[in-house]
Design brief:
Blueprint (H helix, E strand, L loop, with lengths): L1 H6 L4 H20 L2 H14 L1 H6 L3 H11 L5 H10 L14 H28 L1
Helix pairs in contact: 3-7, 5-7, 6-7
Length: about 130
C-alpha cells in the first residue's frame, strides 16, 4: 500500500522507467551472483555431458567450461567478488595483483562446483 502512495502523481512513462530500473537491478544481481553463475555452468555441463565423457580428458573440457563462465571484464570480476565476498577465498599467493587474485578466487569457486558435478556424474556411470 505504501508503494502505491509513492507512485501517485507519477506519469505512466515515469512508472515504466522505475519498473525497468528495478528489472535491470535484478538482472545485475543475477549477473554478479555466484549461485546463478554456478547454476548456469551446471546447466551447460549437463547439456555437454555426453561430449565431456566422450572426451579422452574430461577434466580438461570441464576446466574449459569453468573458464568460459568467468567474465573476461575486470569490472564484472570485481563486481562478482564484491557481491559474493563471504563465499570466496582470496588467493593472493597465486596472483601478481588484486585483479588476478579476484579471478583466481572465482575460478577456484567454480572449479569446486564443476569438479563436484564431474564426481557425481562419474559415480552414476560406475
Amino acid at each position: 500500500m505504501n508503494n502505491n502512495k509513492q507512485l501517485q502523481g507519477l506519469s505512466d512513462h515515469q512508472i515504466q522507467l522505475l519498473a525497468l530500473k528495478g528489472l535491470e537491478a535484478r538482472e545485475d544481481e543475477k549477473k554478479y551472483s555466484l549461485w546463478h553463475i554456478a547454476k548456469d555452468m551446471r546447466e551447460e555441463l549437463n547439456d555437454m555431458r555426453d561430449e565431456i565423457f566422450e572426451n579422452e580428458y574430461p577434466e580438461e573440457l570441464v576446466t574449459q567450461i569453468v573458464e568460459s563462465n568467468i567474465s573476461v571484464y575486470t569490472y564484472d570480476q570485481v563486481m562478482i567478488y564484491a557481491h559474493n565476498i563471504n563465499d570466496l577465498e582470496m588467493y593472493h599467493a597465486f596472483a601478481e595483483d588484486f585483479q588476478g587474485a579476484v579471478y583466481y578466487s572465482i575460478y577456484e569457486y567454480l572449479c569446486s562446483k564443476a569438479n563436484n558435478w564431474l564426481c557425481e556424474q562419474q559415480e552414476e556411470v560406475v
